[in-house]
Every structure is written in structure tokens, then in C-alpha cells.
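Lab notebook page, bench 4
Experiment: in silico fold of construct C2
Operator: M.H.
Input chain length: 72 residues
Purpose: comparison with the prior construct
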Amino acid sequence: MSRSRRPPRLPGDAASFDDLDPREQARVREQWASRMDALVAELNFAAEFEAAGESYSEADEDGNLIIHEPRA
């Protein structure tokens, strides 16, 4: 997946999102949401923290704090 920070092109001659009709806006929102889902799925903060030797914390399904210490 491309990590370009440029937004997707708008259809037709639209200069901005607001220039699109509601159906086209819905299509663009769907494309943006799909792109964001794919980018979020690629995130792996645990691996990044571990690679950097940093600890990190998270909450389990019951809301309890879990601290992950870096591996030696």
C-alpha cells in the first residue's frame, strides 16, 4: 500500500469535496474510509516500541492496566 500523504483525487472537475453531489461525496467517503482502515490495519505499535527498547502499556478487556517492559 502506498504511504502517500496526498488525498485521493476527486472525481470529475471537482475542485473540492463540497463541489461534489451527495452521491459522489458518499463514494469518496467510502474510498477514504477504506484507505484509513487499510492504513490502521498496518499499524503495529507493539513491534515499534519493542524494536526501540521502550515499554508500553495497554488495557485488557476488563480495563486492567498491563505494562509491557522492553525485552533485554
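Observations: DSSP finds two helices and two strands in the chain. The chain has a mean pLDDT of 85.
Next step: discuss at group meeting.
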